[in-house]
From TrEMBL:
SMART domains: DAGKc (SM00046)
TM helices/strands, residue ranges: none
InterPro entries: ATP-NAD_kinase_N (IPR017438), Diacylglycerol/lipid_kinase (IPR005218), Diacylglycerol_kinase_cat_dom (IPR001206), Lipid_Phosphate_FormReg (IPR050187), NAD/diacylglycerol_kinase_sf (IPR016064), YegS/DAGK_C (IPR045540)
Organism superkingdom: Bacteria
One family name in Pfam for this protein: DAGK_cat
Protein's name in the database: Diacylglycerol kinase family lipid kinase
Length: 298
């Protein structure tokens, strides 16, 4: 198998750079002809993939965290190659939510390569969103509202690992405030005093948070998690329940499964797709049913 591997050496606070020689060696041991391209700046992976002739490869691999995978997927959609191979993941970043869908842990990069070497793939849904006249694609989840504030606060805390999101939530809790939100869902409009909205294709966010426990990767639907107005104290209790997905039992949570949704905020804010801060509300989402092939364990 000939692979194009987009490798982020800064992932995992530089851990990926240390692992690089071992990753190269194991790829060789598995008989994989891997061409590694290293990223050195934000959005570099998008450029590298978009400018590649993907028809030359049997697999396109993202090695890094969720942000690297997000960029690789977007480069895939920007690439003009007529034939495109399955996508795969070698996780070694700070945030690795999608690896949970593959039944992987952060230290399982060898197991991830084993999955790729098996050359077995399955079709997956892809989320598409349009914001500020730009189109993006995602495999995980896009948040807006309070969750974006938390994600931005967590960026300088990435050295803390998974605890970064917990600390950032506590920091931002003091400024918690609901706002008017309008959601246009498959032709129906609802208005809410909302704290945050998450639009999910997969179940996890931030590696450990089971934000959308009902999400399936091939059902043709996006899962919308809406938190309505809530007190600071109750949000703290709710926050701890996101680890096991039981937050959706709270009456302040609305859980919807949709094909398309548009979100309008009274105070337009930033979006947080797959851990990356970009775009702004209003934003339109659509599920692309089984739109890509992804290397998966048999």
């Amino acid at each position: 198998m000939k692979l194009l591997v987009i490798y982020n050496p800064q992932a995992g606070n530089g851990r990926a750079k240390i692992l690089l020689p071992q990753v190269r060696q194991y790829l060789n041991e598995k008989g994989l002809d891997a061409e590694l391209l290293l990223t050195d700046r934000p959005a570099h992976a998008v450029e590298l993939v978009a400018e590649s002739d993907l028809s030359r490869y049997d697999g396109l691999i993202a090695s890094g965290g969720d942000g690297t995978l997000f960029e690789v997927v977007n480069g895939y959609y920007q690439c003009n190659s007529e034939k495109k191979p399955p996508i795969g993941l070698i996780p070694n970043g700070t945030g690795n939510a999608f690896m949970k869908e593959l039944q992987l842990q952060k230290s399982d990069w060898r197991k991830a390569i084993d999955i790729i070497a098996s050359n077995h793939s399955r079709p997956l849904d892809v989320g598409r969103f349009v914001s500020q006249n730009q189109t993006h694609h995602f495999l995980n989840i896009v948040g807006m509202g309070f969750v974006t504030d938390v994600a931005q606060a967590a960026i300088p805390l990435k050295w803390m690992g998974n605890a970064a999101y917990t600390v950032a939530t506590l920091q931002k809790l003091i400024n918690l405030k609901a706002q008017k939100m309008v959601l246009e869902i498959d032709g129906k409009t609802i208005e809410r005093d909302g704290v945050f909205v998450e639009v999910a294709n997969s179940r996890y966010t931030g590696t450990t948070f089971l934000m959308a426990p009902k999400a399936e990767l091939d059902d043709g639907l996006l899962d919308v998690v809406l938190l309505n107005n809530v007190s600071r104290l109750k949000l703290l209790r709710l926050f701890t329940s996101i680890y096991d997905g039981s937050h959706i039992k709270y009456p302040e949570i609305e859980y919807l499964q949709v094909k398309k949704v548009k979100v309008i905020e009274e105070n337009p804010g930033m979006l947080i797709p797959d851990g990356e801060v970009m775009g702004r509300t209003p934003v339109e989402f659509e599920c692309l049913h089984k739109d890509i092939e992804f290397f998966w364990a048999k």
